[in-house]
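FORM 7B - TANDEM STRUCTURE REPORT

SECTION 1: FIRST PROTEIN
SEQUENCE AND TOKENS:
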Amino acid sequence: MTKNYILVGANPAEMLKTQHRGGVLSLSIGLLDYAKKKGYCIEIIDTFFDTFALKGHSYLSLIKRIPRGFSRIIQLIKMLFSFKYSGVIIFSGSGFSFYERIFLSAICSLFRVPVVFFIVSGNFFDILKAKTAKKKWVSFLLSIPNYIAVSGAQWFKLLEDLNVRSKKIILIHYWLKSSFPIAHKPKKKAVEKIIHFVFVGWIIKEKGIYEIIYAIEKLIEKHHFRFTFIGSGTLLSDLRNKISKSNWGNSVSALGWVTDDESSKIIASGDVFVLPSYAEGFPISLIEALSLGLPAICTNVGGISDSLQSGMNGYLIPPRQVEPLIEAMEHYLQDPSLIDRHSKAALQIFRKNHSQDENCKLIFQALEKR
């Protein structure tokens, strides 16, 4: 008998309407890949919303979100009244998204349908700065889902600090879709080849774009290298203007969003991945880079430290600081042989932590326990 599940997450069909391939969309695709292999039936309640299209217009964003939220609530209730579902998988952001998804979890509880709840937004860590009353309220809300999935040890500690029972927390590392072209061998850095750094993500302040620009300015004075930005966002025009006005020649480029195939080819052609974000849940672009054998330079936020170990497969740096970024990039510029060693470790850690089958299996095992 076919097992039926509900996924509250981004609908992969939205890929046809946008160039943005955000993390939840990638997780949804990978989860559906796994379910198809196992013969599970998953129906989707779509949560796709381009938050960056309305960045700086929070009131307008809320006006658009509220009716969509009510629509999802009604859709979930109608589906649960069929009494055919074995469980619900919910991907949640922070802010409005979190409260709406918790409400959906409460509805599932009324129907006695188990929930695995993922918080994917690194901004959820801001709860640590909140007043005690808000922390207690969030702690209570987190008691509603049957299980809360986390992508790393720092997430686990955050939930324990919020008094979430440890037996409710499941460590599930993120995964890639089945069609992603994973490398079979580590990189071999040719001595004469110019080192190529690659960034993939939103071109916004919170992704550390200003820190990267400053690092490029300092390093390009004494080193010859390439830097490619993939992604779009509010700072893309400013970034392109900076590139055109600077004496960087063809060394630095900002491509905007490109197709999946183009993105994977560009990452594979690179030597080192760079993502100095201020906050992350766990960036899918980092997993893509590791799977292609790239060492990485990332900030120690969210679940990143589970798969990026300084001096082994890259460097962890503090957020909002330029000098540690410059120092990390310079490690590779001064000693390119590091790329070979760190590339081997990158692939090993990817295979250990980010297997689609092993991680997706944990979700359905949890749902079947209830």
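SECTION 2: SECOND PROTEIN
SEQUENCE AND TOKENS:
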Amino acid sequence: MNVFVNLEHVIHVPWVVISASFAAILILFAGMRVRSAIADGGGVLPDEGFTLRNALEVVVEQLSDLAEMTIGDEYRRYFPIVGTIFLFVLISNVMSLFPGLLGSTSDVNTTTAWAIISFVVYNYVGITTHGWKYIYQFMGPSIINLKVGDGHWHIRLLAPLFLPLELVLHLARIITLSVRLLANMFADHLVVVTWLGLVPAVVPAIFLGLGLLVSFLQAAVFALLTMIYIGQALEEAH
């Protein structure tokens, strides 16, 4: 039974939209709770014990460090979109581990939508950073370098070969990002549901733990690949 599918029949809104909206609401709620906790605490001192704020701060700090290593000095500028992708994918993945719920990342429309967002973001970064010279990243290495007056001209003789190939490979990133997330989460949830049906206790708990780990790793991988693509877009073509 899927609660969101039942709601779909009642309000005539696709279940994946309802599920995605629910995940977004959870993210907003968590953000407001953390903001409120910081305001009530009177500063940046962590809460005592294990709290939602402390858990989110640890995750954000680790993801921030990874973004700095992957993107570089400008990571703070692009970290909000990377963090949003990570949290949404993570929450949607974990939702599917709860009986009666199904995360929107179990639907190809959601995974493809986030893949397209990632694709648009890193190409936007490349275009805004390098302007029309961003196309050089798709034209292969500079084989001949000429200096004419104060200018330098990079001759890319292999551009006719590299350009169509690179464009196809970059477009394929949408498919690989989408299918990787969808396939891994489908397989993980299928295993968990199967064991819940065969052995109601003990063994399913192990697979639920593994499912939680897989959910976290897949969210991290999606965010990491987005950071890698942004980092590559920021680099100068050689």
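SECTION 3: OBSERVATIONS ON SECOND PROTEIN
Residues 159-198 form the longest helix (40 residues).
The chain is about 70% helix and 5% strand.

SECTION 4: SIGNATURE
Preparer initials: ____
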